[in-house]
Amino acid sequence: DQFNWYTEHDPSNPxxxxxxxxxxxxxxxxxxxxxxxxxxxxxxxxxxxxxxxEIDTPKPEDYNFKEGNCEAIGLWDSDKKFNDYNCGxxxxxxxxxxxxxxxxxxxxxxxxxxxxxxxxxxxxxxxIFDQQRFRYPERAIIFSAVCYFFxxxxxxxxxxxxxNIVCEKSKNSDGDTALVMRQGSSEDGxxxxxxxxxxxxxxxxxxxxxxxILNLTWFLAAGLxxxxxxxxxxxxxxxxxxxxxxxxxxxxxxIKEEIDGDRLANICFVGxxxxxxxxxxxxxxxxxxYLCGMTFxxxxxxxxxxxxxxxxxxxKKTDKLExxxxxxxxFSVLYSIPATILIACFLYERFQRPKWEVAYVRNCILPNKDxxxxxxxxxxxxxxxxxxxxxxxxxxxxxGLSTGFWVLLSFKTASNWARLLNCFGKKDTETEV
Length: 433
Prior knowledge:
63% of the residues lie in helices and 6% in strands. By secondary structure, the protein is mostly helical. Strands 1-2 form a two-stranded antiparallel sheet. A two-stranded antiparallel ribbon has the order 3-4. It is elongated and about 80 Å long. The termini are far apart.
């Protein structure tokens, strides 16, 4: 008996979907998705009084979407992974949204990366000219500036090298070649990708640790009354933690081949395709460092207020103490706000990106959709994705600017640079004579 698709299904009776599918095993993809859009959105549950049943979302193999047919869903036949598909994501895929958005993000990271690079370079040069001026706890800010200098260099490299970093050539079973997103190791040797991921991932973790050390040394000085010399004796311990721990984590992700490309900012990072990697190697360490830093920040501010109150009661001047408290507190707060937003962005991406990927694939398998080539009406998985990425990349760089302002807003900085410029001016005059 032939089953009539349109007359036998009663939309008001969810249980009829079971009868429909059982009566017509020859249903087509177009008819199925047209009649039952709820099945695309997830598991379709309904209850029959006699026999409860459940219909699952169609799996990739139901429509032969295997490695040999990755192009049917806008992907590429390779040894890569995209969501649950053993396919690679092409660098010109609609998944990344309109080309204009990519250009916006590309110039956005260049501007902020360049500003961060200049600000941190100014901070480091100021420290080199007058090292005795910056003692602990202030010296931790200098090493934080060093970290953000290398982070900004990594972003600037992404602008100038573009696809050469995050994309690699891949051949499918037919011998055709396409540029796909880089994931893990590759035959062409991802040396530049490896170097860039080291600059961004390693120094981002190190910068968080130096912020923790800043707040810790502030607490030691204000709360436990440690002097600069006593804190300086622990400098080797501070350097060991700040530089070795990120190195261990970076070594782990290299061994496990967790480095992959980010097409939007043209950077190699961790967890761009694997949400578990993002969770365990990015979010988890940053959250731990953040909690430790906020704890010491709170203790330091509380101790500093007590010290100020004691000195005020004894009639001693507190001008220098208040100035120091304001400067260190200002930097700590300026650091904690972007750090909070950045971790929130990573968490949002951790839970939303699988939905973006599934939405992209479902968009491609719908009727009258052809994702084998880049469409003029680019697919955007989330209307707020551009804003989200603008904020995320800004938070990864903006803290470096605060180090420059922290050093610049000081009379000693102006006098040191003026003295240095006068020295160069005198040398030029002597040369002319």
